[in-house]
Amino acid sequence: MSKLYALLDKATLQRYGWDIPRFFKRITDLDEPPTLLQYRNKTGDDDEVIADLQTIRRYYQGTLILNDRLALVAHADGIHLGQEDLCDVDSDIVRAAATVRAHIGERIFGLSTHNRVEIEEANRLPLDYIGLGAYRSTGTKKEATVAGEKLLALARLSKHPVALIGGVRLEDRFDESIAYKVVGSGLLSQDNR
Q1: pTM to 2 decimals?
Q2: Confidence tier at 188 by pLDDT (50, 70, 90)
């Protein structure tokens, strides 16, 4: 059975009128605590991100993944990058991934993928997991292409554990090809208040 990978997106928290302590109150009410937690803040400055990571650490002792902010990875247990973020490191993805791995050392390294080509490229990289999505439409990434059940077949192509993302719900169940189900705004929905 897939493990829970919680996504704490700062903009989504604000849109729902939640703060970090309330998010963690919700997390502690779950039958299944998250194995991984990713913090994403696309608009805050570095000081805000660091302060939020310190607050998260007061509530969460599990594995904390930071989204995109490679320069701040020392404040987390790992990094999750999108395809564009990896290309910003180096236009050659193999060199880019090697550079990231050298920078983060033994920390966790995840990469977003969306299709067969990106999964096959990721198979050559020193990653700890891939994010694969979008499974369903989501308000967080309106530009995401929704692939639905097709992703379950694509997941079997990955040599890395797969974290299914994009509209995934707590109640979703997947076979062994999906190591993690990434749940974000689904943790904050009306039904869960």
Answers
A1: 0.93
A2: confident
